[in-house]
Amino acid sequence: MNEEPLSGGNASAGVVRVGDTVRRPAGPWTPAVHALLDHLHRAGYAAAPRPLGIDERGREVLTFAPGRTVWPERFPLLDPEARLARVARLIRAFHDAVADFTPPPGARWQNLMPSGGAEIVIHHDLAPWNLVVDDATDTWTFIDWDVAGPGTRLWDLAYAAHGFVPLSAAPGLGRPDRAAAARLRLFADAYGLTDEADRRALVPLLARRCLSMHDFLRAQAAQGVQPWATLWNEGHGTVWKADAAYAEARSALWTSALLG
Fold this sequence. Notes:
Distance between the termini: 57 Å
Radius of gyration: 18 Å
Number of helices: 8
């Protein structure tokens, strides 16, 4: 069958579409990730691809998610509050579905950076560039689960809030402070983050999660590891550090919004 290269991500080399499937380079983490995706499918979680095994070339095979990623051209799709809330509910449904997942013996994960705990297995990259929306069927799917691994709900949620609200210092992307604060509250409410201690704990993670991305890219660039070295050289580390400072400077406002 014909192979159609799929691009658009920062680490999409070797990813192709074959019919209704996606073929991706496999790694030591692939069996654990496939066990996770199998679990989600059995639990009725529809916003993730299904694993279909390994092909004759040693590539992992997943169901193809029709549609296009939200980022970057379609990001305004999430401007309406109801759509932002839908993202948060999809994340909550994933976290609830994975709560009783038991990784296979000897499970190996990529573990790209520390996540402050191992409460559940999380996605680690819930972001607009990994959300595929199919307008024809109104189907929303999170893709790129290869960096999934142990972590905490709040670690996943902080990264997602940064990307989807969004909470960024980037010109043309961030929103006025009070509008951003209101959207952050909406996101937390839609997720179902009701515990006051959790809402308070989320705020410092918003800056820490951004800084972790900066530190990760810097470390990988120092070792010449791709594609991270290229991203660092393109200035992605500077963006993450600026967003960390942005979040730190607004921590009081965001805490007030979440607790008010």
